[in-house]
Amino acid sequence: MSTSYSQTPVSAPSTWDVFLSFRGKDTRNTFTSHLYAAFERAEIRTFKDDSELHKGEEISDSLFQAIQESKSYVVVLSENYANSSWCLNELAEILSCCKTTGRSLTPVFYMIDPSVVRHQKDSYKKAFDRHLIDFGKEKVDRWRLTLFEVANLSGYHVSGDR
């Protein structure tokens, strides 16, 4: 289940079959590591950022390049995903690439209801309240819209009972 955006895809070189976006604190050593291993077993070239901590607020040029050189995207949305400005910047770039290239994006709602992400409730609301102070309304509004659009895509919901 994934969605393509552009009706006139722009071709670009691709190094990766899948770019995996996730909040390391929530899923690095659980769901995401298992998903990454499954992709490896299937010989799917997958980009997974292994840095535990990111310095600064902006995504590095190499990460932008990996996003732009990926054929598709899997975004693991979890309880603390919106706490990370790094994740939100990454997601905004992913969505932008999807819209300009027609590549697919598959959201995975890991232990969080999609409506929490879509409507930015609970932990997402708290995260955005904090981000407003640090980053301002314009950037936060862009992140909100990005999450709303991604949460409206057909994806997978992984809950504790599944």
Automatic annotation (TrEMBL):
GO terms for biological process: signal transduction. Its EC number is 3.2.2.6. Coiled coil: none annotated. It catalyses: NAD(+) + H2O = ADP-D-ribose + nicotinamide + H(+). One of its GO terms (molecular function) is NAD+ nucleosidase activity, cyclic ADP-ribose generating. Residues 15-153 form the TIR domain. Keywords: Hydrolase, NAD. It is an enzyme of class 3 (hydrolase). It comes from the Eukaryota. This is ADP-ribosyl cyclase/cyclic ADP-ribose hydrolase. It comes from Daucus carota subsp. sativus.
